[in-house]
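User: Some background: our group keeps a shared notebook of sequences we're curious about, and every so often someone picks one and asks for a predicted structure to add to the entry. Today it's my turn. The entry only has the sequence so far, pasted here. Could you supply the structure so I can complete it?
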Amino acid sequence: MWEQVTVKQILLITDGCSNIGCNPVHAAETARRHGIAVNVIGIVDGGSLGADGQREVQEIANAGGGISRIVEVKQLARTMHMMTRYTMQLTIQQVVNQELRSIVGTEMTDLPPEKRMDVAHLIDQAGEEAELRLVLLVDVSASMQGKLPQVREAIRDLEIGLDARKGKHQIAVMTYPAAGAVAKVVSQFCENPGLAALSSGLSAAGGTPTGPALEQAIELLLAGKEIADGSARSYVV
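Assistant: Of course. Here's the predicted structure to add to the notebook entry:
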């Protein structure tokens, strides 16, 4: 069963407020309607993201059915892995609740304690077996210049963690802004985005069009929704 479930996520990494294009909160709402969870990491490094930046990070994640964290750049790798794993479990829990409601008319929280433990074990197992399609959307505006080496290392560490799962995973990497465009795809969906390509693809400059970049990340995920046997199902919290 779980091999037929595809969990779709966008993981947005940014260090500041958007200032170009549409409202990123509205873009995150669009993602959620299409079965895509949006998680957001706000990076601080020797300073503060600011009240407006923190509020935007939280509002984007709330609208996108995901979670948000404000972290120092040295915590980035661990946070990326934790958020990806945790949000997958939340999504699987939603799937299980849907199935329970249709079968017995209840949700996990209404089950007796011993049954709840059995279901929790099922959710853990499912989180290891379901397919993950993840877009890493990286803010490379000018203020991110000193943080990009850690971003590359965090992507590598995330790959290593995902390789330990039983289920399939596909990762794409997008950056914004891009020369002459809102965003660009640095690495198409694959199990291991090449770090050599990322080295040239992550260079900081320009403003912060987070909303339009989210819209393009959504388009990339939806463009890859066709599954050869037509059996995959997508869910979001």
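Suggested note for the entry: The chain has a mean pLDDT of 76. The helical segments are 24-33, 51-63, 76-104, 113-129, 148-163, 195-201, 210-223.
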